[in-house]
Amino acid sequence: MIAQVQISDAENVQRQLRFPVGARITMADLEEAGREPVLDGLRDQEPVTWLPAVGGWLITKREAARELLLPKTGSSVEADENMVRASLGTMMLTVDCPAHDRLRAPFERPFRAREVDRVFGGFIQEQADRLIDRFVSDGTAELHSVFAAEFAVAVAGHVIGLPLGESSQIDSYYADFAAAMVYDGDPKPVMRAERAREQLNELLLAGLNAHRETGTQSLTNEVLADPGNELTDEEVVAQLRVVMFGAVETIQASVMSTLLLLLTHPEPLAQCLADPGLISGAVDEAIRLIPPVAFIERWMAKPFTTCGVNIGAGEFVGISVIAVNRDPEVFADPLTFDIHRANARHGLGFSAGEHHCLGVHLARTQTALAVERILARLPGLTLVSALPPAGFAFRRPGSLELSWRV
Q1: Rounded to an integer, what distance in angstroms lies between the CA atom of residue 377 and that of residue 130?
Q2: What average pLDDT does the segment 276-301 reach?
């Protein structure tokens, strides 16, 4: 476990003098809607900077961020200060290799692109249509409350093959997990996340035991049947917690963000309506511009130098995914929503290196199918109002009020 270095007051002052732009960045700049241009300016002036607001370094340049995430740099997730660990517990995202590989390996095969389409594609479309059936005749709706939250939980439950109960309760657990992943020193969100984790563990362990009796086709069944799987039930549940986190929190975000961008850009919307095959490109571009995972954290096991900045062993380094995904050296005209962008998937919305998102193929498939069904079944779909994307660690529109022809 890495012990995070605590620098002296004098060193803190020196770093703020050397990195004056970073010294002015606040938590609000990292969290609130509409502050993205501040991060663009930071990237242009100090792509690697000292950020007193989080007590560590911040990278806003895409290539420097990707380099940090590669194993050879010595970056690590194993630190007591890791807020993902504090929120979701010890699992594949909060340990390094070889422990990481042991925990992740039994879950790899079911998430391959071919397996996702074959096993889950039909169910995903059925769930989208089932939920749309409930409100299609209303003519108006708020997307999160009538579709996004329940859709994400229903598919997550099917994928892992365990009964999850009320979608609102599961959604509240993951809202508590996400709220705890903020580096502001407030212990109350962490306490709420710990309670949510205990309650979810009970639910998942009970489901795991019941699942052994039925053995229905699912991710859990494949993991339990894998002859190479040596994980305890508690370790399986810990991995399911984080798999579900991606399946619940980030799916809601990607569906809502994709629709927000399409409904505020008439030409790409018209193109997707005429050719639904373009929706996958819209999803990739939405994840680039409004990354569901907006902040990635690491600790240095050894010194690291990038962009002329020396970062010492034991220091905390954060990545602003918002900023790196808008890097003009990688993405031409980066603020434009371009559903034909050839390199949209070069963003770091699904991270990189050994901790890249396990469910990336499922996330893209699920989001594209949801958006396709919504556009196909709600003619004349129009955005009435929206709360814009916000959030520090996880980012999505606060609401989408929609209307359509009945």
Answers
A1: 12
A2: 97
pLDDT for 229-271, tens place per residue? 888 989 988 888 888 877 888 899 999 999 999 999 999 999 9
Backbone angles phi, psi at 48, to 5 degrees: -125, 120
Rounded to whole angstroms, the Cα distance separating 313 from 18 reads 20
Supply the pLDDT for residue 215.
59
Report all structural domains of the chain as residue ranges with CATH numbers, in order of start.
9-403 (1.10.630.10)
**What is the distance between the alpha carbons of residues 341 and 281, in angstroms, rounded to a whole number?**
7
Output 249 or 10, whichever has higher pLDDT: 10
Measure the CA–CA gap between 203 and 44, rounded to whole angstroms.
47
Q: Which pTM was predicted?
A: 0.92
- Tell me how far apart the alpha carbons of residues 231 and 403 are, in angstroms, rounded to a whole number: 48
The pLDDT of 209-216, averaged and rounded, is 68
**Taking a C-beta distance cutoff of 8 angstroms, is the pair 390, 32 a contact?**
yes
| Phi, psi torsion values for 276, nearest 5 degrees | -55, -20
Q: For residue 162, is pLDDT > 70?
A: no
Report d(CA 173, CA 382) in Å as an integer. 31
Which residues make Cβ contacts (< 8 Å) with residue 383, sequence separation at least 6?
260, 263, 264, 400, 401, 402
